Amino acid sequence: xxxxxxxxxxxxxxxxxxxxxxxxxxxxxxxxxxxxxxxxxxxxxxxxxxxxxxxxxxxxxxxxxxxxxxxxxxxxxxxxxxxxxxxxxxxxxxxxxxxxxxxxxxxxxxxxxxxxxxxxxxxxxxxxxxxxxxxxxxxx
Length: 140
Known about the structure:
Layout: E1 28-32, H1 35-38, E2 44-50, E3 61-64, E4 67-74, E5 76-81, E6 84-89, E7 93-95, E8 102-107, E9 112-118, E10 123-126
Antiparallel strand pairs: 1-2, 2-9, 3-10, 4-7, 4-9, 5-6, 5-8
């Protein structure tokens, strides 16, 4: 039998929540999908899209999280995962293992991705650089 006491049903339509600044990165906009509230903080799901051209990127960091995936919906982004450059394009899904050191350093103006993380209040922790970062692609 389903346990309906720990999570709630949630249905968020595009007009229900807006993209807002003030998330983890100031150069992105975030749209809450209602999952954190429905799961009482067990999981967060939000849409993330480019708001400004990449200059410094995210910096080297890791997350204190049990689970994290990124599903690229539009455009592309370039990450360093440890010492490996990875271009993530529309349709791609990336599972970021817990604690992986990474750096999002470049993205297209139309970049938009779905991010799902557990727990909802995951922490982002700066780490020492792993390797050199390629330059971002200038926006026209």
